[in-house]
Amino acid sequence: MPSQPPNPEVPDTTGRHPLKGPHAWVSTTYFAEGFPYTIVNSDVVKEVFRQFGASKAEIGLTALFHLPWNLKFLWGPFVDHYETKRLWLIGSEVALSAVMMGLAFVVSAGQTLTIISALFVLMAMLSATHDIAIDGFYLEGLDERGQSRFVGYRAMAYRLASLLVGGPGMILIGLGGWLVGLTAMAGVMVALTIIHMVILPRVETRRHSLSRVLRAALGLRVLAMGALVAAAIAAERELSLIRPAWHAVMASVRSVPWLARLSIGGWIGMVAIGLLLALLVLLAFRRRIEKRLSGSDSHYAAAFVHFLAQPKVGRILAFVVLFRTGESFLQAMKLLFLRDEMKMTLGAYGTANGTLGVIASFLATFVGGWLIARQGLRRWIWPFVIAQNTLNLLYMLLATAGPDAPPSLAMLTAVIMAEHFGAGLGTAVFMVYLMRCCDPAHKAAHMAILTALMSVSFTIAGAASGFLAEALGYTTYFALTFVATIPGMALIFFIPYLDGRPKESVSSAAVAEH
Questions:
Q1: How many CB atoms lie within 10 A of CB 181?
Q2: Is residue 214 part of a domain?
Q3: 287 plus 355 within the same structural domain
C-alpha cells in the first residue's frame, strides 16, 4: 500500500473551510460511524429476522451482533500500529459498502438466515474496526482544545445517522422492499466513502506497512497451523468426536433446573457478569500483567502496557465502567414504562423521545463541549454529571402518579426532553474524559479499550432490568437508577486528568524505566 507523505498536515482546530475543515470531516466521519452501527444494532436486523420467520428466541440472539464492539480493544493495537487511521477508515468504508450491497441482494433474494447472519457478523466486525479508525483519526487530527470543541459535532452527527436509519430508512424498506431500502443505505455508505477520500486531511505518518502482516500470515508456521485446523475439522466430520461430548454437556446443563429456565437475556447477563469479573481480576493483577508484558517487543503488548502504566489506572477503569450505570438502567425500562404505565402512544413516544429529545441532547452536547473547551473539564464535570443523574428521579415522580392518573402528554414530553438534555451534558463530559485517558502514542488502541469497557454496564443493566422492575415496581426501580449513579460520582474525587493530560506521557516515562 502506498505510504503517506513524510510531512502530514498540522491539525487545524479553527479552520472553517466548507469542505476540508474539521467542522466538515468530524461531522461526516461520525455520521459514517453511527450509520452501520445503527443498521446492525437496531430494528432493521429484528425486522429481517421476523420476516424470515425467526422465533422470539432467535430474534433475541441478534443482540450478540454487538459483541465486536465489546471486543474491539483486542484488535485496536493492530489498527494503531499498521498503516494510518485514514487508510483504515476509508478501507473499512469500502468494505462496508460492499457488504451492505451484498446484504441487500441476499435478503431480497430470500436466502437462508445463516447466510444473512454471516453478513451481519462481518458487517459488525468491519463497523467496529471503522469505529477504532475514526476515534483514532479524531485524536490525531485535533489538539486537546479542538477535541473538546467538536464533541458536540460528533454527537450530533452520530445521532443523525441513527435517526436516518430508524426513520426514513425503515419507511423506505416498508414502501419499496428490502432491495430498495438496503441498496439506498449502501448508496449512502458509498457516498460517504467518496467524500472521505476527498476531504480527510493526512494528519499522520504511516508507522508500519500492512504488507508485513501479509508476509507473516503466509509464513510456514501459519500455513502449518492452518493445515492442522483443516485436518481437525475433516476428522471431526468423519469421526464425530466432539459432537457427542457437546450434547452430553448440554444435557447436563438442562438437568439443572435454574439453568434450564434461563432465558437468552439471562445467559447474556451471565456472560456479561463473567466479563466484569474478568475485568476485576485484571485490575487485581494489573501490575503483574504490566511487568510481564513490558519485556515484550510486540506493539500489541506495548499498547496495553502503556495503558496500564497510567497513574490511577484502576480508578480510571472503574469510573469508565460505572459512569453510565444509572442511565443504562433507565434506558432499559423507559419505553415499557411510558408505553404501558403512562399510556403514551407509539407516535407520541417517537415524537417526544426520538425527535424533541434528540434535539435537546444535541443542544446539551454542543453547549457542554463548548463550555468545557472554554473553562475546562474540572469546572463543569460536577454540574453536568449531577444534571445527568438527578434527572432520573423525574421518572420516579411520574411512577408515583401511577397509571390511573397519568400526567399530561406535555408533562411527559417535558420530562423526556429534560432527561435527554442532562444525558447530553453527561456525554460531553464523558467523551472529553475518555480522550484524556488515551496515550498519544496509542490513541486508537486506548480509545478502543475504553469504549469497549464503557458498554459493560449497558449489557449488565439490560440483562437485569426486567427482573428488577418486576420485583421492585417502577417507583423503586427508578429510584434505584439514581442510586446506581453514586459509585461513579464518588470516583470523580479520585480520578486523574481533570485538568488535562500531562504534556509528557506518563506511560512513556514508565516504559523508559523498564
A1: 22
A2: no
A3: yes
Instruction: Kindly give, in sequence order, each residue whose CB lies less than 8 Å from that of residue 387, ignoring residues fewer than 6 positions away.
Output: 421, 422, 425, 426
Identify the DSSP state of 111.
-
Residue 319 CA: distances (Å) to CA of 254, 261, 324, 434: 38, 34, 9, 10
Rounded Cα gap, residues 1 and 483, in angstroms: 52
Distance CA(433)–CA(415), nearest Å, equals 27
Measured CA to CA in angstroms, residue 26 lies from 134, 138, 193, 195 at distances of: 9, 7, 14, 12
The residues facing 381 across adjacent strands are none
- Residue 49, judged by CB atoms within 10 A of its CB (0-12, 13-18, 19+), counts as buried
Pairs from 477-480 (Cβ < 8 Å, separation ≥ 24): 477/329, 477/333, 477/399, 478/330, 478/337, 478/392, 478/393, 478/395, 478/396, 478/399, 479/393, 479/396, 480/329
3-state secondary structure 2-36: CCCCCCCCCCCCCCCCCCCCHHHHHHHHHHHHHHH
Query: Average pLDDT in the 207-212 region?
Result: 65
Whether 1 is in a domain gets the answer: no
Over residues 297-329, the pLDDT tens digits come to: 666 567 777 777 788 888 898 899 899 889 888
DSSP structure class, residue 98: H
The domain total for the chain is 3
Please tell me whether residues 304 and 358 are part of one structural domain: yes
- With a threshold of 0.90, does the pTM exceed it? no
Do 283 and 205 share a domain, yes or no?
A: no
What is the distance between the alpha carbons of residues 417 and 426, in angstroms, rounded to a whole number? 14
124 within 8 A of 64, measured Cβ to Cβ: no
Structural domain for 368, as ranges: 264-514
Asked whether residue 110 falls in the same domain as residue 177, the answer is: yes
> In this structure, what are the phi and psi dihedrals at residue 310, rounded to the nearest 5 degrees?
-65, 150
* pLDDT-wise least confident of 226-235, 393-402, 501-510: 501-510
Q: Is residue 184 part of a domain?
A: yes
